[in-house]
Amino acid sequence: MIKVNNKKAISNLSRRSFGANKARNYIAVLAIVLTTILFTSLFTLGMGTVESLQQATMRQAGGDGHAVLKYMTKEQFDAVKDNSRIKEIAFDMALCDSVENPELLKRHAEFWYNDEVGLKLSYIKPEVGRAPQTENEIMVDSQTLQLLGVPQQLGAKVSLQLNIRGEMVTREFTLCGWWTSDPAFNVGQIFASRAYVEAHSEELQCTYYKDLSMTGAINAYVMFPNSLNLQAKLDQLMAESEFSPIETDPNYLDSNINWAYLSTNFGMDAGTILGLGCGLLLIIFTGYLIIYNIFQISIVRDIRFYGLLKTIGTTAGQIRSMIRRQALILSAIGIPIGLFLGFFSGKALVPLLMNNSSYAGSAISVSPHPAIFMGSALFALGTVLISTLKPGKMAGKVSPIEAVRYTECDQPKQKHKKSTNGAKMGRIALSNLGRNKKRTVLVVISLSLSLILLNTVVTLSGSIDMDKFLSKFTDTDFLIAHADYFNNDFNGVENETSEQMIEAIKSLEGFEEGGRLYGGRENLFFAKDPNNSQTFNRDESGNFYGAVFGLEQLPMQRLELIDGEIDMEKLLSGNYILEGIHLDDNGRVIPETAKYKVGDTVNLYNWRATNPADAENRDYTEHKYTVLGHVAIKTYTNSDRSSWDYTFYLPASVYQTIVDTPAVMSYVFNVKDNNEPAVEAFLKQYTTEIEPMMNYDSKGTTMAAFSGMRNTVLMVGGALGGIIGMIGILNFINAVLTSIVARKKEFAMLQSIGMTRKQLKKMLCCEGLYYAGFSALCSLVFGWLGSLIIVQAICSQMWFLTYHLVLWPLLAAVPVLLVLGIAVPLVVYRATDHQSIVERLREAE
Amino acid sequence: MNEFNILILAIAMLSVAFAVFTTMRSRINEKRVLDHLDAMLTAAMDGTFDETIFDESLLSSVETKFAHYLSASSVSARNLAEEKKKIKELIADISHQTKTPLSNILLYAQLLGEQDLPQESLPCVTALNTQAEKLSFLIGSLVKTSRLETGVIELHPKQSAVQPMLDTVLAQVAPKAGEKQLHLACNNATAADACFDTKWTAEAIYNILDNAVKYTPCGGTIQIATTVYSLFCRIDIKDTGIGIPEEEQAKVFARFYRSPAVSESEGVGIGLYLARQIIADEGGYIKVNSKVGGGTCFSVFLPIAR
Amino acid sequence: MNILQTKSLKKIYGTGETAVHALDGVDFTVEKGEFVAIVGMSGSGKSTLLHMLGGLDRPTEGSVTVDGKNIFSLKDEELTVFRRRKIGFVFQNYNLVPVLNVYENVVLPIQLDGNVPDDTYINNIIATLGLESKLQSLPNNLSGGQQQRVAIARALASKPAIILADEPTGNLDSKTSQDVLSLLKVTSQKFSQTIVMITHNEEIAQLADRIIRIEDGKIVGGDKA
After folding, report:
1. What is the value of ipTM here, to two decimals?
2. Which chains reach chain C with 3 or more Cβ–Cβ distances below 8 angstroms?
3. CB neighbours (10 Å) of residue A347?
4. Residues A129 and A195 placed together within one structural domain of the fold
5. Which pTM value belongs to this model?
6. Where do the domains of chain B lie, and which CATH numbers do they carry?
7. Per-residue pLDDT reduced to its tens digit, A353-397
8. Residue B269 DSSP code
9. Among A12, A566, B271, C216, which is least packed by CB within 10 angstroms?
10. CATH number of C2-220
11. Which of C123, C176, C180, C206 has the most B C-beta neighbours within 10 Å, making it the best mutation to test the interface with B?
């Protein structure tokens, strides 16, 4: 239906009546700003986290290309580079098989030539100096420079030992630029110039597909016009350039799409989405509470006005649209401010979150993505409109007769003759609250909500269980091992734990006890298991890959027995063995990872030299054991940090007899409590200066991570609770303000019949106290219930949480509430109480 | 498969776009039609309606029908107005044509009275005179009324003092009042100005006063009082006469209305009608407040400013 | 021609024993151009009657026909639109929109209907009511009499079928009352408006062409024509 055009009248009316409601507008704008801040922070937090995670992942994946064609020759590269499907293509050439400088043992470095596109896609940009140009110029990341012992100085000499097809070559270079290492990228990077590539073109002929030598291999990172359907695009590109993805074909070329792009909502797992959803709902609800309340109150106050509009023929629809318009004007002011402030607060919070994720140390990137602003603005606007829906409906339903007869607080219900002493004031105040139950309930809810939230946050942070956390990461005070071990790359003798360091530690003051763990991929075992039909991870004899660890006394004692027994005598006899069982994140046993029952016989095999002098000639040797019991595999303390299908534990002495080259995987030890800091300092110094390839883990470092996490929960939750608390207080102020303004005439009347100002104030304070009291009661009850039901549920989901009932924040907030309950009405009353009784009596007409 | 998806998507998008476009277009069309109808009606109300579309469209045919309807109704309205005008002209003609014979009758009746006539003829002459005068008054009033109604007479309200006008009227009515020994009192001379046409307002007030004199028994009082409000000047003419019953109060202003209670006394029932016409035309009004036996108060409200 | 007609109009508040018959079968008609006063003591049901006539409240029984339309056959929303097109109100407490100036108040009902105010007509009304110099003032800055004149102007502006005035001078002193009433009368004469006015004051009622008296929800005396 085509409507008559009466927008002008409505817009004029809403604009004017908007101007007449200044106090409400301020509070409403503030409320909208706060709501928008909450939304924007949440979105910025969400987007920023996802973005940072994605970038971190991309860097780990080695660049921002949509796909990569690997180990190409120059000719192959030329065949691809002009394909029209490609938007950008990077020419990245490996210049050696590996950099063999001993200083780079702990943190490998790679030696590449990247063209401009390649540098861009790998986020490499020299912070000081420039990209290399001449043959002997290189640029290096800062950490590699530090390891190499080269000063951060342009023109410094760098000597690199390069492994070129197995041949060791030492070349001298000049430093022409460097950049700060990306902590997410655990490999050093050295880049040479195009001139270098041209000068050594003979040795840089890619032969990867013949001898697996990286030297001269070109990786082409490819950007397509968009990131949709990458696999199909890559397949087409491969086909058009006549490469085959099948390994046995002569024209085989390795390629893959960037796994960072594999899923577009990367990092948005169910938990994150749930969290975000809950956050959104909570914000919508708090925003709704206050905005709804503000409008509801202002409409009740203006009820005569709406009645009057009704009598002269304003339809309900027109009144609704008036209120919607006012809400829109308020939003137009409040939302941009909120967006602005919210973006920065969100930006400030992202690093906090990131620091405590597994991506700690990654560069944080929060860009002002339009989606953040659009989303927040949309949600904020939505909240405002939802909140004004009901008040609008109410205003529209006002009967025109209201205009003729209605005044909100016309008949005060209390008996005035009773108002002679303070105690009775309380009763009047209570019945005053009862006059507008809805408003009272709203104020109480919004005040309680913030308290409950605060309590939840404190409960959560208090529930982070130090012991659980520590027991997952550490069994003992310290653990030392080769740096490779911590990078999940422990192999065997080549990177075993230094005996020199163990001796040094044993001689430390306060040293109590210590023990070695033996293991390593070098000493691979194979387990016979007729019950397992799995086809992979089997050797030629059909036995399964497995790991056997040899434990000295201390780590042996620390094993967590699940069933069976740990009888040292039996174990030392060499006929018994302990089987490891995996645990899930919450420390619960995953029973199906136990392949044998206690008492079963296990046949293990490994390769042993036929005679000790001849390491090349090896036999497939069988060992028979009976399973004595099952123990928990703890990834961070008693495994090589890889997950094996078959894991067994033996005493170190037995282990040493069944392998040719027992390798010390790690060494764990305890020290006296008061020596911990000294030992920690010693280890730190030792691993950086004396044996840089060694590294350590300690309760101290774990505890730092732990408290960081707790701080994050407190910080983020506290900020949220703070804002919601502010909204609650705002709501309270608004309720008190309007109730005082609306009852101006009534107060004047009360005063005219002899109520003193003091008594009046007493009455108002009583009302405030009731609000505070109800809120305290409500938040205690619901905080307690919520804590029991919700927080406990969360705690049981997260492995590092142990639920404790915490109520002290609520109790601590009670006095604050009471003070507010007294102060707010007093301040507000003082602000409105300027005129004489007569003036007020007259004005209210 | 991929192309197929894109195709489906494209078709879906196109149909959505088409649907949106069609809806929009039909809305715009509908609005155009309604706007046009609105404009037609506005023009018709102003009397400036003209057909603008002449084509095969329904709208055009609606316009034509509407024009037919308008012209038909305007013809009938014009006929009505013409008839009314003719009646008024007739009255005017009659009254005008009767004027001369009437004056002659009056003249000859007076002449007759001056002659020596037998005693028994005297009452006849007197009656002849009275009736002739009555007829003359009636005709005079009719002429004035019809002129006022047909707009021949135009009132020219001007800002002028109220008191002088009242004085004139009082002087006019004084002899008649004297005859009935009525006490004619003008309470407080007013200095107020009001906006009125002196001659015709005097006529109106004279008519009211004349009535008061007529229906107030001998020895009664007629009071004239003036009150000034911020927008109106009120002239009360209060008598101690027989009063008007409430149900007749609205009717006394009707043309030729004569209260059954006074059917005996002379009068044609046109004076008050004329008075109300004059005052209303000047932007004022007359209010009556009366009780049977308790006298009557006519209040004339004259606007103070235009 | 009847512009307003009520038929056995009844309004009962409450039920059973405590039921109050505010209106108990009211029948009357008002002709086009008439100025009718409804007079009654307070509590006689006259305000209830006016609310019914204006469609502000629904009767328990009976009907009100305005300009040939039974107004209670309309839905609430339709009734509101009907009201703004056919009925003008003048209230005891003026009921002007406090945030709009005089001119905006006067043309509001027209604009609400999506029409462009007919300026010649509006100016005529405003001149008649002597409000020319106050057009830009806000109602709060006007005296009671002036506010009521604005209310009259607003009631006239949309050329309604009937104007309902509820104690239009209830809040005014007697002198101002006289002016306001005079204006109401003069404008109704001038613009041929039908007016139904409620008052408890006989003196004021004298102004009307016809007086309807109401007592205990019933019409007494007066003619029912």
Report:
1. 0.76
2. A, B
3. 18
4. yes
5. 0.60
6. 77-150 (1.10.287), 158-303 (3.30.565.10)
7. 655 544 444 455 556 677 778 888 888 898 888 888 888 888 888
8. S
9. C216
10. 3.40.50.300
11. C206
